[in-house]
Amino acid sequence: MDFFRKKILQVDDLERGILARLIAEAGEFLKGRLDDPYQTVLERNPSASTMSGQLIQLYLEQLLINLYRRYTVLSKPASSFQSLENTVRENTDTEIFAQVTNYLSQNLNSRVTIEKICHDNLIGRSQLQKIFQRKTGLGIIEYFSRMKIDTAKQLIRSEQMNFTQISEKLGYASIHYFSRQFKKVTGMTPSEYASSIKAIADRKQERFFDSPHL
């Protein structure tokens, strides 16, 4: 711990991810708000998840070890340590990506912003965008838009709702905006897509009835 005395260290994306998990766990483990400057006593939440306190300790140890390595061991040529660092970073990115995509799936009926996604998932905007670019080649909002359109296509194929109902269900401001977004992603309007699905179904039905075994 002497290494950290009187030092100001910069955290990288990996360490921000560790901090985010630490804060999220602390929010479950402790009573009150973590951002309350007038809170002077930390009390354990009796309904906290099992082993929550142990996880906080492990995250803190991981953060300190990572900082120490990066500012000492990893400042010298050491390919094995760098390889380990890259593996840990990739695992962290994968974990964050899974967490955020699950969050987006649960908010398909909302109009979320990058700021809200970052706030609700305890992640920086720059790190979030980098992860989605690496994983999907898309920005986070474009990825979310495609998730919505994929859901809209499923709803159109099910024929359970009309276009207005689908638009409202997915949180679009209007049916016109929904149609524009749908065409932007698929190259077709919702009506054209529905017609194409019907045409494909009709052709399959015709081939079935025309087959020799009938």
From TrEMBL:
The keyword DNA-binding applies. InterPro entries: Homeodomain-like_sf, HTH_AraC, HTH_AraC-typ_CS, Tscrpt_reg_AraC-type_HTH. The keyword Transcription applies. It holds the Pfam family HTH_18. Keywords: DNA-binding, Transcription, Transcription regulation. One of its GO terms (molecular function) is DNA-binding transcription factor activity. Signal peptide: none annotated. Residues 98-196 form the HTH araC/xylS-type domain. SUPFAM superfamilies: Homeodomain-like. This is HTH araC/xylS-type domain-containing protein. It comes from Blautia hydrogenotrophica (strain DSM 10507 / JCM 14656 / S5a33) (Ruminococcus hydrogenotrophicus).
